[in-house]
Design a protein that fits this description.
By secondary structure, this protein is an alpha+beta fold. It has one domain: Alpha-D-Glucose-1,6-Bisphosphate, Chain A, domain 4 (2-Layer Sandwich). Helix content is 30%, strand content 48%. It has three helices and seven strands, in the order βααββββββα. The longest helix is centred in the C-terminal third of the chain and has 31 residues. The chain is globular and about 40 Å long. The N and C termini lie far apart (41 Å).
């Protein structure tokens, strides 16, 4: 199963960066590939969200459960239904001298076993690019707020 992990250092307070990342409904305002995020259910420490994104020009839809560990600044997510066979991972927000080190990890499975050897490397590269784009958008949103 492919695994992608990307990291970005954001010049900002880790708690503020974490809170912005928790506000998934706002992603379409500043993340180009995210068309919509709708909160279906919200509790004190979790949400169920419905996502519509573009990945290399193709629309991808899914629902996920997001679990928020506020004490450790970790967001874990796991697809509950959608276009991929498996899609899960986590965001971590670590205080560093420059501000906040954000790491986004994704484990996914397309669900096409016979083509996995051919498709997974391309899919991994595409998912990595998408994750980097999300982190760069988060960084720009935080750092532009400070100016």
């Amino acid at each position: 199963m492919p695994h992608v992990e990307v990291t970005e250092v954001v010049k900002g307070d880790p708690n503020q960066v974490y809170e912005l990342a928790k506000d998934m409904e706002s992603y379409p305002k500043f993340m180009e590939d995210v068309e919509s995020v709708t909160v279906i259910e919200r509790t004190a420490h979790s949400t169920i969200t419905s996502w519509v994104t573009k990945l290399q020009g193709k629309t991808i839809k899914w629902k996920e459960r997001d679990v928020f560990d506020d004490e450790n600044r970790v967001i874990s997510y796991c697809q509950t239904e959608g276009d991929l066979k498996k899609f899960e991972g986590k965001w971590t927000f670590e205080e560093v001298p420059e501000g906040c080190k954000v790491t986004l990890s994704v484990d996914f499975e397309l669900g096409i076993p016979m083509l996995a050897g051919l498709v997974n490397p391309v899919a991994t590269m595409t998912v990595r690019k998408n994750c980097q784009s999300m982190l760069q958008a988060l960084k720009a949103q935080v750092e532009n707020r400070r100016t």
